[in-house]
Write a structure and sequence with these properties.
Elements (H helix, E strand, L loop, with lengths): L17 H12 L3 H24 L8 H4 L36 E5 L8 E5 L11
Antiparallel strand pairs: 1-2
Protein name: DnaJ-class molecular chaperone
Organism: Streptomyces clavifer
Length: 133
């Protein structure tokens, strides 16, 4: 009869092994330096090869979106709309802010060099509520 080790009630459960334990610990840490370095080396090699091929054809490799697709107009990533305004029963709340005319702010366009940038800027006079104070 086989008896369990001293002080143990049940025999030890079988394990997958040391290699699987190491692999699990490695996966918990995520990408490691050697993995990202090898990926960067691969990409750098592809870039050099692309530059060489383009040069031998009398061209240069396209690097920017404007070079790859001339005339392409990007859609803005996010368009913010004016916030919803809720009417209150008080008389002052029903009157629109004189600075933003009840919108609560405005969309500011800071586009340049073919890149569209828009963001919402809240009204300072009404703190973005759209109601007169």
């Amino acid at each position: 009869m086989i008896r369990p080790a001293h002080g143990a009630g049940l025999p030890i459960a079988p394990r997958a092994g040391t290699i699987d334990d190491i692999r699990r610990e490695d996966d918990k840490r995520g990408y490691e330096r050697d993995e990202t370095d090898s990926f960067r080396q691969l990409v750098a090699g592809l870039v050099v090869d692309g530059d060489r091929r383009a040069g031998s054809a009398g061209r240069h490799a396209r690097r920017t979106l404007a070079e790859m697709s001339p005339g392409y107009k990007r859609q803005p990533v996010l368009l913010l709309t004016r916030p919803l305004t809720f009417r209150s029963t008080s008389i002052a709340a029903n009157q629109a802010c004189t600075s933003c005319h009840g919108a609560g702010g405005k969309t500011v366009d800071t586009s340049s060099d073919g890149v569209s940038r828009q963001h919402w800027q809240s009204c300072g006079a009404c703190s973005g509520s759209g109601a007169a104070r």
